[in-house]
Amino acid sequence: MDHSTAPLVAAVAEYHALGRYGFTPPGHRQGRGTDTRVLTALGTDAFAADILASPGLDDRLARGGQLGEAEELMADAVGAESAFFSTCGSSLSVKAAMMAVAGGDDGGLLVARDSHKSIVAGLIFSGVRPHWITPRWDAERHFSHPPSPAQVEQAWRENPHAAGALIVSPSPYGTCADIRGIAEVCHARGKPLIVDEAWGAHLPFHPDLPTWAMDVGADVCVVSVHKMGMGFEQGSVFHVQGDLVDPKRLSRCADLLMTTSPNVLIYAALDGWRRQMVEFGHDLLGGALSLARRARADIDQISGLEVMHDDLLGIEASHDLDLLQVLVDVSATGASGYQAADWLRTHRRLDLGLSDHRRVLATLSPADDSTSVDALVDGLALWSAGLGDPAPHDIDLPKPEDLQLDTVLLPRDAFFARTEAVPAAQSVGRIAAEQLTPYPPGIPVIVPGERIDAAVVDYLRTGIAAGMNIPDADDPRLDTIRVVATR
Questions:
Q1: 56 pLDDT tier (thresholds 50, 70, 90)
Q2: Structure pTM?
Q3: Domains in the chain with CATH codes
Q4: What is the 3-state secondary structure (H, E, C) of the chain?
Q5: pLDDT by residue (tens digit) across 145-167?
């Protein structure tokens, strides 16, 4: 092997040499949106590459009290009672919250089935039994909406001994649940609500954004500051309030998962972002929202493209919408979202945050400006104009009921069971031992412990052929699927 090469270093260098631009996390856009005071302290180059290589703020240095003071400032800034920093992303933070609420409790946890793969990982780590809350489903658009308070109420009636509930809001598409209503349902039973608000770190800082979970009764709220904020990748905060979750127990659970050598750059960027938002967040986010409205209007004028808005809201849909998440339906062109995203990446050097069989998503932030939005609009217009007569995708889209797989074993038991890889067609009727997750957005279609049906196998295999990415599969082509062994 040639040890004179460094492929990751080369990839970062190529990204900058080609002038690539991403409408995707991290929201600081290689430092463009970062407070200049943070750039001075940490160095512009660190944000330009988002490479975290400086010495860490380890357990010894934490004794100085600076970390505790920064966390107190964060809690005060967003109206929480306590805040804890994590340098392992919200993937760690949500696991800690699940363990603090339901770890060691035989009653299990109500969990929205549209949860991120990190939550499934938390179920595997902890052994907590999930009681799935089915999301609301738009069968025509093949799109799930966050669960309603009525659905959470029904889940509580069916599982009254559960330790608490966990929902995701905003979703990776920017759609939001009625957190106030769901919190009231949980609190009527004296049970806590965890909100995986990884995509909502910015919500406390502008009134035109969806409701911040802490303002409407959530007990624990997890946010990823790198997504819609200006922090480094892996920068996360979990906020706590009320008396239904013990903050010391939560801190102990986080300590079990956290590295003892966290990176000082991640902590410092979280602290600097909090200061930036308190001092200037309203104006920065107001400008970003204005820019997003213009982008949405301009894209909506492109032939064959529809910026989704009204069809995402309403009684049978989502409760609210983050307008900085520009979700574009491209199905009227006859092409798939995968094709649109690939074309923009190859021909316009633009990276999008998400694509699926009929949509693409551009995530805007205060770091964007008229130039970057013009590039997005022009790129989509050129792609649409040059399509001609695209070949339709051949993805076998399942019915909503086909996606509701039966849970046979606990995710932990299935994952650690004796397993075998079988041809995909032979996996039908078997118990899954791996999670299979189209990414992005990272919501598992199959969770360990579920009984596999033919519809989801056909969906995933035809999706891969059309451009879907399933990075956590043992076999990336899904010719085989790992299942629990029968003997």
A1: very low
A2: 0.86
A3: 61-271 (3.40.640.10), 400-484 (3.90.100.10)
A4: CCCCCCHHHHHHHHHHHCCCEEECCCCCCCCCCCCHHHHHHHCHHHHHHCCCCCCECCCCHHHHCHHHHHHHHHHHHHCCCEEEEECCHHHHHHHHHHHHHHCCCCCCEEEECCCCHHHHHHHHHHCCCEEEECCEEECCCCEEECCCHHHHHHHHHHCCCCCCEEEECCCCCCEECCHHHHHHHHHCCCCCEEEECCCCCCHHHCCCCCCCHHHHCCCEEEEEHHHHCCCCCCCEEEEECCCCCCHHHHHHHHHHHCCCCCEHHHHHHHHHHHHHHHHHHHHHHHHHHHHHHHHHHHHHCCCCCEECCHHHECCCCECEECCCEEEEECHHHCCCHHHHHHHHHHHCCEEECEECCCEEEEECCCCCCHHHHHHHHHHHHHHHHCCCCCCCCCCCCCCHHHHCCCECCCHHHHHCCCEEEEEHHHHCCCEECCCECCCCCCCCCECCCEECCHHHHHHHHHHHHHCCCCCCCCCCCCCEEEEECCC
A5: 899 999 999 999 999 999 999 99
